[in-house]
Amino acid sequence: MTTRVGVITFPGSLDERDAQRAIRLAGAEPVPLWHGSHDLEGVDALVLPGGFSYGDYLRAGAIAALAPIMAEVKDAAANGMPVLGICNGFQMLVEAHLLPGGLIRNAHQQFIRRDQRLRVENADTAWTRGFEQGQEIVIPLKNADGGYICSAETLARVEGEGLVAFRYLGVNPNGSLDDIAGLTNTAGNVVGLMPHPEHAVEPGFGPDTDAAMRSGVDGLTFFTSAVSTVVAAAA
């Protein structure tokens, strides 16, 4: 059985083709989906890609979170389907209340683009099982509204229940509380993060490493993790 992973395009999405390529490299079949549809076309997992849906008007991800297909995304997530939100997709997940908290303008009020060191804080999710707990990885980051915020009560729950999936290392690029770069839900099937794993999946196009320039492929593990999770569930 070939794992089928849906990638939803919203008006203003920029990175859906990159996500589709990452899915192919992970050995799965990417399935393009449209924001105005109510049909998930029988996919096994979902990716909400990066970009600037609806021009980031109102709040980043706020309008896209109300798109027709998000009703199906919520139902699928509630039923355990792996769902990954990348950058703008992460913003959609918090706006749709699939993940707690919110994302606001970077603390320095600047768009930032850098290869970002992260620590894997939760290696027991559908999208992180290929990593080791505490593993350090490098994933490209590009955002203007990546500052993670939440109430003190929510922050205590997020930290106490192990819902922090990734934490920034070396530098906090956007002022996120507790250096939070990504979250998971309690079930571990929904993950969102601001950095872009789909930009670190193929040698020659990823971050620099000690071995060679642009050789970093840490992002590919996100997608291979999801594929193995789906295959294991079907066995």
TrEMBL record:
Stored SUPFAM superfamilies: Class I glutamine amidotransferase-like
- Pathway the protein acts in: Purine metabolism; IMP biosynthesis via de novo pathway; 5-amino-1-(5-phospho-D-ribosyl)imidazole from N(2)-formyl-N(1)-(5-phospho-D-ribosyl)glycinamide: step 1/2
- Report the domain of life of the source organism: Bacteria
Question: What keywords appear on the UniProt entry?
Answer: ATP-binding, Cytoplasm, Glutamine amidotransferase, Hydrolase, Ligase, Nucleotide-binding, Purine biosynthesis
Residue numbers annotated as active site: C87, H196, E198
Q: What is the annotated localization of this protein?
A: Cytoplasm
KW rRNA-binding (keyword) present: no
Return the EC number: 6.3.5.3, 3.5.1.2
Q: What is its main location?
A: cytoplasm
Known Gene3D superfamilies for this protein?
Answer: 3.40.50.880
Q: Which reaction does it catalyse?
A: L-glutamine + H2O = L-glutamate + NH4(+); N(2)-formyl-N(1)-(5-phospho-beta-D-ribosyl)glycinamide + L-glutamine + ATP + H2O = 2-formamido-N(1)-(5-O-phospho-beta-D-ribosyl)acetamidine + L-glutamate + ADP + phosphate + H(+)
Q: Is Cell membrane among the key words of this record?
A: no
How is the subunit organization of this protein annotated in UniProt? Part of the FGAM synthase complex composed of 1 PurL, 1 PurQ and 2 PurS subunits.
The function of this protein is: Part of the phosphoribosylformylglycinamidine synthase complex involved in the purines biosynthetic pathway. Catalyzes the ATP-dependent conversion of formylglycinamide ribonucleotide (FGAR) and glutamine to yield formylglycinamidine ribonucleotide (FGAM) and glutamate. The FGAM synthase complex is composed of three subunits. PurQ produces an ammonia molecule by converting glutamine to glutamate. PurL transfers the ammonia molecule to FGAR to form FGAM in an ATP-dependent manner.
Q: What is this protein called?
A: Phosphoribosylformylglycinamidine synthase subunit PurQ
Q: Which organism is it from?
A: Microbacterium awajiense
Encoding gene (name): purQ
